[in-house]
Every structure is written in structure tokens, then in C-alpha cells.
Amino acid sequence: xxxxxxxxxxxxxxxxxxxxxxxxxxxxxxxxxxxxxxxxxxxxxxxxxxxxxxxxxxxxxxxxxxxxxxxxxxxxxxxxxxxxxxxxxxxxxxxxxxxxxxxxxxxxxxxxxxxxxxxxxxxxxxxxxxxxxxxxxxxxxxxxxxxxxxxxxxxxxxxxxxxxxxx
Length: 167
Fold this sequence. Notes:
19% of the residues lie in helices and 16% in strands. By secondary structure, it is of the alpha+beta class. The strands form two sheets. A four-stranded mixed sheet has the order 5-4-3-6, covered by helices on one side. Strands 1-2 form a two-stranded antiparallel sheet. A hairpin with a 2-residue loop joins strand 1 and strand 2 (57-62). The protein is globular. The relative contact order is 0.26. The mean pLDDT is 84.
């Protein structure tokens, strides 16, 4: 009922290989989170926190599991989906992704293709449950971690990409 954590990039990649799945690359992950309209948050343009009024009371709510001290069950925010139907692209755990190629990095990040890539570093996308600032809860939030690192706030989201297996 909870996302898997304490897995390194190598653990996630091994799991995916065993089940003929893959980790999405950064472009794929961000496209799934943003939708076709390039929304800043997976749920749209509305901010992370919201207020509603019911029977004269002000209720404060959130659209993602952020700013907390622990994980939430995977169905805690089940009604909040991206345009493509993906859940929890922001909140709960950040997710390991495949690195972009040097040319893709230049196009997306403006990095120089002449710089040597750091081979043991891998990107994670999506804000985890420990993040609380709106700037870190957007679809474009990105961090790079050592591929062997394991911690309580990074998991993974396997993807099915048959073209990667049957060529």
C-alpha cells in the first residue's frame, strides 16, 4: 500500500530488467507529469495548497503529499491525476529516472555537450513528502543523486516501453 523506498538506481534498474520494464527518461517522466498543456503542477495551474469553504468553516487542503514527516499510502491522493492519468507525480516519493543523452541535456538543460557526464549520477524527478515549497513541487523539479544512494524519500515508477525490448 506504500511506495517502495530505500532502493538505489541500480536496484530499480535491476527490477525493471527482471520484469521487462524500464525507468522513464527525464523527458518521458516530465511529459507524463505536465500533460500536453505544459502545466506547472500535475493537476494543472492551481497552487499546491488550497482552501475550501463549507458550512461557514475554512478547510485547508493539499493536492499532494508534501511537507510531511512520513510516507502516505498510494491511494491517499487518488483523485489527483495528471492529464494522462498518472498519480502522485509530485509528493510521496521522488523517482529515479534514466539520464538524458548528451544532446538531450543540451536541448533541455542548456548544458555543454563537451562536459564529461558524471556516470555514477542519476536524476530523480518529483518532489518527495519532505518538500513543502511550491517551487520544489512543480513538474520540472529535478535533482541528481549518486546512483548507489538509498534513502527514505526516493523510489521508482516502472514504465512499459516495448520498443526498448523488442528491436
